[in-house]
Design brief:
- It contains 13 helices and no strands.
- By secondary structure, the chain is mainly alpha-helical.
- It has a domain of 187 residues: MetI-like (MetI-like fold, Orthogonal Bundle), CATH 1.10.3720.
- It is a multi-pass membrane protein.
- It comes from Mangrovihabitans endophyticus.
Length: 326
């Protein structure tokens, strides 16, 4: 219990530090959202309108940077992420809720599938060294070193074009209204196939390599030899003894992967113009949209912290040694 409370205190402090950095870092970028709007409207804005925008966006110099920082914390405590400059006057929470479902559906599902598929193949490759699964290692090593977005560009070049089944961009066919019906869902699935395959091919290779190497290391431990000497079946030794201990490093990696689901595939969403949270972050950066950037960074921060906390709890369940006080 003491260990868990210490970890929670650490995560609370980390959340405060991350939120503080999320506030100050966007404001260090040259320019501001009002200037972006002036450029967008080709300078056809009066001085009074410009001053009103600074006050509306909370960027007036009367409060100063620290006053804006305190106001930001007050908004967070009230559950208010502010108004998006890019999609004004839409609240940031609505922009995020409209985009996060796309990212969770695409990256979340592919991350979970790649973890279980890669871990299973890694257990098989590590336990049965010299089998056909070892022949996959050079291919997986190569694929794990290729960035997601590069595979995406290659897929667009080879598999899309006139008459192709695969769309090259977007999340659904233009003209359709997002709804749970027989028209929208097949279109959304069709548009997600190439981005999902891109992420799956790149990420599953890393899980295979890491799990295979850990299985090889664990297989030489004394308790594995003792388990064999007891007459236990090969399958039970592989799953209950070897794989359970070899899985621990992959649990941490999987937790981090879950945490970065909401923003870890930014370039993939840009390449495919997929309407997820990463693509919205790209638009926010271009427009100097501080509230939207802060809101997305906040979601990413909380996701990573919660995922790490879940990893710590998983460690407590999987490894009895972590439950013992020093």
């Amino acid at each position: 219990m003491k260990y868990l409370l210490q970890r929670i205190a650490f995560y609370v402090f980390t959340a405060w530090a991350a939120i503080t950095l999320n506030f100050f870092i966007p404001r260090m970028v040259p320019g501001d959202p009002v200037q972006s709007l002036i450029t967008k409207f080709q300078g056809q804005m009066s001085t009074q309108a410009i001053n009103s925008l600074y006050v509306l966006f909370g960027l007036d110099n009367d409060k100063g940077i620290w006053g804006q920082y305190l106001d930001y914390w007050k908004q967070l405590f009230h559950g208010d992420l502010g108004l998006s400059f890019t999609f004004f006057p839409t609240p940031v929470s609505e922009v995020i809720s409209g985009s996060i479902a796309w990212t969770l559906a695409l990256v979340g599902i592919t991350t979970v599938i790649s973890f279980f598929l890669g871990t299973g193949l890694g257990v098989l490759a590590g336990w049965r060294r010299g089998s056909w699964t070892d022949g996959l290692l050079p291919v997986t090593t190569f694929l794990s070193s290729v960035p997601y977005f590069w595979l995406g560009l290659i897929a667009i070049y080879l598999l899309t074009g006139p008459g192709s089944f695969f769309p090259s961009s977007g999340g659904f066919t233009p003209g359709l209204v997002p709804a749970w019906d027989q028209y929208f869902i097949p279109s959304a699935i069709k548009h997600s196939l190439l981005p999902a395959a891109t992420i799956l091919i790149s990420s599953v290779s890393g899980w295979i390599l890491s799990m295979r190497n850990m299985m090889v290391t664990v297989a030489s431990e004394d308790y594995i030899t003792v388990a064999h000497a007891k007459g236990l079946s090969d399958r039970r030794v592989a799953l209950s003894y070897a794989a359970r201990n070899a899985l621990l490093p992959n649990v941490s990696g999987f937790a981090l992967s879950l945490g970065f689901i909401v923003g870890g595939t930014l370039l993939v969403e840009i390449v495919f113009s997929y309407p997820g949270l990463g693509f919205q972050l790209f638009l926010a950066l271009g427009a100097k949209d501080y509230p939207l950037m802060q809101g997305i960074f906040l979601v990413i921060t909380i996701s990573v912290l919660v995922a790490n906390l879940l990893a710590d709890i998983a460690y407590l369940l999987l490894d009895p040694r972590t439950r013992k006080e020093g």
